[in-house]
Amino acid sequence: MSFNIDKQTLDELNLTGKFKSGSVYALFNKVRTSGGERLLDHMFRHPLEEATAINHRSSVFQYFQQADLNFPFDVQQISQMREYVDSTANPGVIRVLAQTFVKRVLAGLTRDERYKKSVQGLQATIVTVSKCYAFVEKLQSDKGPYADKILAMKELLSDKRLQKLREIDIYADMPLKKLAYYEHALKSSLQREMNELLQFIFELDVNIAVSAVARQKKFRYATALPPERNLFAVKGLAHPGIDGAIGNDLRMDTNSNVIFLTGANMAGKSTLMKSIGISLYLAHMGFPLAVNEMTFSVRAGLYSSINVADNIGLGYSHFYAEVVRVKQAAEAAATGKRLLLMFDELFKGTNVKDAYDGTLAITKAFAEYRDCLFIVSTHIIEVGEALRSQDNIQFVYMPTVMEGVKPKYTYQLQQGITEDRQGMMIIRNEGILELMD
């Protein structure tokens, strides 16, 4: 079982993508190592599914955030160490000794770089193991969410072979026998320890980087609850990619599982929906959020329909693409899984009458799935009036405040259904009619 999210939702929320402008992944991708980047990518692609695991990871990030640690390792040395310990080991130390001797001879006669790389690889390993030992010794291991990991690394680094390794002077000439012994040991009998050490360093990289972003941005952490609670409650929710964004409060549960959102264009409806989706996804990862406070029940997936486009390849018009998307959402909801589903401007690709009828019918139908949470936005405010009798639908809107003939957007949610109709005023303000005259 895994957290359900499709490519369209990932793209609409701009969650993943190292090189995508403004992606949530890029916001947190401050790691230093390639291994840390791979681990961060894995976290983004595999949200956690149990409240206990989510809360534990959040507590680890909070531990590092409070500790305010710097990454103590040299990235180039880590890369050299990884290449060194990952290379194929020879079956016996005598054979390794012979091959090391041959490499040293060839290094003196030709431009063979293998002996030099072996020495540099061992030197990088010695320095990295020593730095890891010093770093772990400074960490508090008697309590806290990272105590087990710290104790495990202390035990690993207490191995007598690694103690002797740390004592080697990397600036002194390396005896051939010692070089061959560690070349063999680090790639065979100590290979598991070396892999665990590297994995620990990559975890440190991610923990330090993510917690630093949280500290800089003043992000907070959500509290995860079991799925049966069916709760999503947040205070001060904002978009993590917008500095100084205005926060909003929301609460959804079984008895109030549908939000009907109205507001003028540019009032902030789409950004609010994206903020909700991003916060829920990051919360399932145990990551810090652009919120003041958040409590949520673990959900089985997330589904959005915010930027539906036509599909020329399949011959879909914009309207038909919307219909297909709603059908996919209905099929997902019908599975009985606890999902969050968001729809921005249902059926805007057709005429107003059909859009009204379709939005009304779909919203009513979705509202019956009480285990799912739904957010539906629309310009057709008359739909809201027709839904007033539904006791599990809450009506909120993004207001527009007029300053003379200029609209101003507060981005602050209010209860009710908007009465704002500034479309023609904006058209006039832009002087479009005068240009056509």
UniProtKB/TrEMBL annotation:
GO: which molecular function terms? ATP binding; ATP-dependent DNA damage sensor activity; mismatched DNA binding
* Keywords tagged on the record: ATP-binding, DNA-binding, Nucleotide-binding
Q: Which InterPro entries match?
A: DNA_mismatch_repair_MutS_C, DNA_mismatch_repair_MutS_core, DNA_mismatch_repair_MutS_sf, MutS, P-loop_NTPase
Q: Which domain of life is it from?
A: Bacteria
For biological process, the GO terms are: mismatch repair
**Which SMART domains does this UniProt record tie to the protein?**
MUTSac
Question: What's a Pfam family this protein contains?
Answer: MutS_V
Q: Where would one find coiled-coil regions in this protein?
A: none
Question: What are the residue boundaries of the DNA mismatch repair proteins mutS family domain, all occurrences included?
Answer: 256-437
Checking SUPFAM superfamilies in the record gives: DNA repair protein MutS, domain III, P-loop containing nucleoside triphosphate hydrolases
Its protein name is: MutS-like protein
Q: What organism does this protein naturally occur in?
A: Pseudobacter ginsenosidimutans
